[in-house]
Amino acid sequence: MNNKQGLLVVVSSPSGGGKTTVIKKILETDPNNFIYSVSMTTRPKRAGETEGKDYFFVTLATFQEHIRSNDLIEYEKVHDWYYGTPKNALSAWIKQGKVVLLDLDVYGGLHLKQEYGNRCLLIFLKPPSLEELISRLRRRSTESDTQIKRRLERLPQEMALADKFDAIILNENLDQTVAQVIGLIAEKRKLK
Predict the structure, then answer these.
(1) Res 3: pLDDT
(2) What's the CATH architecture for 38-88?
């Protein structure tokens, strides 16, 4: 896959929509050409998460310093926490021909598309149903019912913006979703 210029691939979905799981599976298929862009966040680390692998966990003051220093290509406040994408490595990875996978909310994805244009592929993972989405959030066991309710309040906005993405995939079956995403990446790289 390394014969072309690199590509930024934003995988977005509502909370619990499966974007992190899909990205992890894709990384397993070809770790030499797929890179995961680790985001920075002010939210607390969840059980099983690793600093520098899942996120860069920072204080609000540190995050604000990165904003002031123009170190982030995009950032958003989502559910009381800030999330942002450090820009230092993105351009280098693109020049190296890597496919950079980013786990972003819809607004972060749209911002990246605005910045990188045709070098950015936006993929929205649509949950099979509201019931399944709620079930996935509950299975995480990381949020209270109040927090789940707050996440679901953002769902209409996210679904409304999905039409601005390059592709919408119904995320019902993990293997099929992964195959579809990889297919979209291959097609996009062929067209470039």
Answers:
(1) 55
(2) 2-Layer Sandwich (3.30)
